[in-house]
């Protein structure tokens, strides 16, 4: 006769094991491919309770691109493949995490708008940050403007859960397409506890890079994303992340709560060059720009005449102008642009496209020129 106490202990152990063991479901019997839907309506093709839950937000780009030629790395169709196909193309990601997919958009990244950015940020905050069952987010994106979206999400998603932005330089139909492995590495980092409290990151080509500083340095090659002065945050070896530093925040980073933001005011970027004309500045303002970023020559340089026009627009129209640099690296310090007759604002280490995102977020919060200047000043050396 088994003593009652041993029987109860065995029963309790069995109950614990059955509840703790992975409830690995086969694919949905009705052919939908989904076996689990969470409280936010996100569908999963597996639900293994020993694995973290990740959501992939797809926006289009080359990673979802296709072409009839297996050697084409240009001229293909961006955003031709949906999020479910991206997930199904990398079954080994299901050894790492339970994965849901959201099709936020399906465009080449040159067509990503600030409305899409607002929607994407609010989706991630709602479906990942606010859901305790979710571990992290991955955003698949075209590479051309990926750094702008990455900067925007780094500024507006601040719950400490990993947000990984990933693209590809070759379409999914190309020989040795980089998208599938980039996506696997991104899901792996998003599922890693070591990736927490590091803000948004870009994971591509075995590199883990800062969303705040990283830029696309080469129009064509797979190793294009770099922050050449700041370096990488980590590396992927055999799909295992190694971080070079403990979690840190970039100098100058400002967090934004955009839960009540409906739109981002227009900010235009003007490129500086020999013989540049002042009317480009007035045309931008007359066309509705509420802020201007200058991709200046060297450390924010513009012609003498253009500088006078800038001071007129700043003083007479109250339009903030950020002086950034057309060089890929380096800094625009305030000492190189300031004057006594207007509030000149230097971008510091932020390039023009990232400065434009930051200025847009500040204007959306109706920041005045003094607040804008003090925020950018956090990014400069002097
Ligand atoms: N198709 C371009 C884009 O969407 C390039 C790319 O994704 O790599 O940005």
Automatic annotation (TrEMBL):
The keyword Hydrolase applies. Its EC number is 3.5.1.1. Keywords: Hydrolase, Signal. Pfam families: Asparaginase, Asparaginase_C. The active site is at 62, 62 (o-isoaspartyl threonine intermediate), 143. CDD domains: L-asparaginase_II. Residues 266-376 form the Asparaginase/glutaminase C-terminal domain. Residues 1-20 form the signal peptide. It is an enzyme of class 3 (hydrolase). Substrate binds at residues 109, 143-144. Belongs to the asparaginase 1 family. This is asparaginase. It comes from Penicillium steckii. The lineage of its organism: Eukaryota, Fungi, Dikarya, Ascomycota, Pezizomycotina.
């Amino acid at each position: 006769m088994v003593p009652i106490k041993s029987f109860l202990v065995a029963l309790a152990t069995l109950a614990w094991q059955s509840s703790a063991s992975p409830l690995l479901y086969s694919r949905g019997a009705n052919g939908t491919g989904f076996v689990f839907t969470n409280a936010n309506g996100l569908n999963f093709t597996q639900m293994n309770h020993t694995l973290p839950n990740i959501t992939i937000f797809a926006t289009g780009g080359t990673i979802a691109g296709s072409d009839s030629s297996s050697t084409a790395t240009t001229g293909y169709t961006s955003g031709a493949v949906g999020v479910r196909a991206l997930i199904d193309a990398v079954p080994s990601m299901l050894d790492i995490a339970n994965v849901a997919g959201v099709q936020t958009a399906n465009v080449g990244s040159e067509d990503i708008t600030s409305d899409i950015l607002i929607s994407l940020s609010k989706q991630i905050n709602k479906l990942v940050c606010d859901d305790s069952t979710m571990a992290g987010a991955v955003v698949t994106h075209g590479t051309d403007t990926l750094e702008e979206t990455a900067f925007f999400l780094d500024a507006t998603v601040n719950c400490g859960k990993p947000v990984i932005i990933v693209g590809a330089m070759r379409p999914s139909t190309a020989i040795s397409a980089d998208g599938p492995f980039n996506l696997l590495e991104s899901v792996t980092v998003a599922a890693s506890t070591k990736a927490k409290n590091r803000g948004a990151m870009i994971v591509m080509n075995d590199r883990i890079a800062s969303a705040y500083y990283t830029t696309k340095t080469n129009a064509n090659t797979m190793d294009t994303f770099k922050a050449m002065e700041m370096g990488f945050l980590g590396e992927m070896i055999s799909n295992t992340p190694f971080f070079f530093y403990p979690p840190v925040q970039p100098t100058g980073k400002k967090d934004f709560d955009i839960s009540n933001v409906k739109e981002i005011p227009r900010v235009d970027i003007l490129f500086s060059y020999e013989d540049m004309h002042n009317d480009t500045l007035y045309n931008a303002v007359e066309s509705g720009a509420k802020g201007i970023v200058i991709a200046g020559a060297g450390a924010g340089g513009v012609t003498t005449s253009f500088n006078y026009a800038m001071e007129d627009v700043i003083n007479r129209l109250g339009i903030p102008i950020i002086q950034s640099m057309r060089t890929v690296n380096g800094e625009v310090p305030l000492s190189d642009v300031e004057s006594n007759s207007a509030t000149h604002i230097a971008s510091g280490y932020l390039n023009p496209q990232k400065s434009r995102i930051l200025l847009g977020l500040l204007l959306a919060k109706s920041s005045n020129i003094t607040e804008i200047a003090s925020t950018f000043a956090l990014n400069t050396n002097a």
